[in-house]
Amino acid sequence: MPRTTAADVLADGVHRAGAARVFLAPGAPAFLRDAVARRGLATLDAPDVTDACVMAAVTGELGDVPGVVLATLDDVAALSPGLTLAARDRAPLLLLTPPHADVALLAPIVKASLIVEPASAGHWIAHAANLAMTGPRGPVHVACAASVAGAAALPVATACRPAPLPPPAGAGLDALGARLSATRPLIVTGLECGGDDARWVRAFAESLPAPVLATPKGRGTLAEPHPLALGLLDGSHPLLVATDLVLLIGVDASELPPGVLPATARVARIGRAPWPEGGPTLSADIVGEITLVIEELAPHVKARPSADWDVAALDRLKRAAVAEALTAPGARLVRIVREATPAGTIATADVPLGLAWQAVAPRETLTPLGGHAPPGYAIVAAVAAQLADADRRVVAFTSPLGLAAGAGAVALATDRALPIVIVVLGPEGDEQAFTRALARGLALARPVVIGAGD
Question: Which residues contact 409 (CB under 8 A, 6 or more apart)?
Answer without folding.
Answer: 47, 51, 376, 379, 380, 382, 383
